[in-house]
Amino acid sequence: MNSRKVVFLFMSTFIIGTTAGTLIGLILDWQTHINDIANFRFGGIFMLVITAGIWTVIAQMGFFAYLTLHRLGLGIFGSVKLWNRVQTVLIAFALFDLMFFRHFLFAEEGEAMLGYTVMPLLLLAYGWIVAELKARDTGNRQAFVPALFFMVVVTTVEWIPALSENELTFILNAIVPLLVANTWQLLVLHRLHDMPNGVQPSIAMVQAQQRERNEERKDEQMQKKST
Fold first, then answer.
1. Assigned domain for 225 exists
2. 72: pLDDT strictly greater than 70
3. Which end of the chain has fewer CB atoms surrounding its CB within 10 Å, N or C?
């Protein structure tokens, strides 16, 4: 990773995450923002952009922190297989804590815990899809668990300030830029590694690289069928 790739990763993540966060903010309070625009008041939209940008930067900090943690974990446990097992246990703990502590802190008297399982299950399902894409795209099944850990555990840690408020709009305004930014960072990193260092990265180049990978997979599948 040279400086061009790092700058591209930072800027593209910031733009994509902030855009997604701004859009979800507009959707959640559409009528208010439409009225503001009609009256030439843009303070609310400006605050949406700032808030989405802050959550995106938090996602970027979490990503680089996890890259450091991942290297540290590999060094401590000595093998990918053992480190992946540790991460699997931590994923289970994070999902349980996301359910249990929200119920413990915010549930009304007599309220069942079942309703608090929806959020962790949705996060797990989304993280599973992204991790599967990562493993397929890299051709490395060992990448599945680290990707799932990042999407579940790291995203949950980044999400804590919003979760502590227990207000649905705030929670959604936070999770959308976090998930979009984390997904982009995770799925674009290995593609940046594969690009020549002398080339200026771009989103169009990333898309072209993905199309090439898809064509290669189709060719491999055709060859397997023919044999």
1. no
2. yes
3. C
